[in-house]
Design goal:
- This protein is mainly alpha-helical.
- It has eight helices and no strands.
- Helix 1 (10-32) packs across helix 8 and helix 5 (102-131) packs across helix 6.
């Protein structure tokens, strides 16, 4: 009976992880509300989940806020650039999809391929910002190169994110209450266990290093 109330019991550990995912999702939403700070909020989210994936759990709020305020300007710049590019690709895809002549089809597929590369860079940019000290240009360059060299793993990260959101939207809406934290944690496990060790980044910290 005592084992049932033991904190190290797998059931309680799982429930604790679920609570962490909910808390992180709430933090991410609240700090993203000005919209312009979505980049900083996402970077802070990954800073915490990367720690969790590396077995360095602690005070989630303290870690999140610390990472949010450090490098805030850079995170905002990265987000606004990615947002502008995303809107540009989105409009072009919509526009050329509705044109009815052969050249438009070619242009549409060109932008479709470019959008895939954009999605890969978007997926990698904020985790790298949370882990490395790098300027905006270098951050985008590393995001592009790392995603290309780890194509299958980054694709898995994207697919996992889409599946989690799809389950929340189409199957069981409460999943959305844990979605941001869960997506970041799943991605962080892949990054921390597979991708980052390939480049010696598993122990590099840039926000509030220990």
């Amino acid at each position: 009976m005592a084992k049932l109330f033991d904190y190290n019991n797998p059931v309680w550990r799982f429930m604790g992880k679920v609570a962490d995912m909910f808390f992180l999702t709430v933090l991410w939403v609240v700090f993203s509300l000005p919209i312009i700070t979505i980049g900083a909020s996402t970077k802070a989210l990954y800073y915490v989940t990367l720690k969790m994936a590396g077995g360095k759990e602690g005070y989630l709020w303290q870690y999140f806020f610390q990472a949010f305020k450090e490098g805030l300007g850079q995170s905002v710049a990265v987000w606004l650039i990615l947002l502008a590019i995303g809107l540009f690709f989105g409009w072009d895809l919509y526009y050329y999809y509705h044109l009815r002549f052969p050249a438009a089809v070619v242009v549409f597929w060109l932008f479709f391929v470019l959008s895939i590369f954009y999605l890969f860079v978007f997926t990698m940019a904020f985790p790298l910002a949370a882990r490395l000290e790098a300027g905006v240009k270098k951050l985008f360059f590393l995001s592009f190169m790392v995603s290309l060299k780890n194509f299958s793993w980054v694709m898995l990260m994207i697919v996992a994110a889409v599946c989690i959101i799809a389950v929340g939207v189409f199957v069981f809406w409460p999943v959305l209450l844990f979605s941001a934290g869960t997506i970041a944690f799943v991605n962080s496990l892949i990054l921390e266990k597979v991708i980052f060790p390939r480049y010696g980044w598993e122990k590099i910290e840039n926000a509030g290093g220990e």
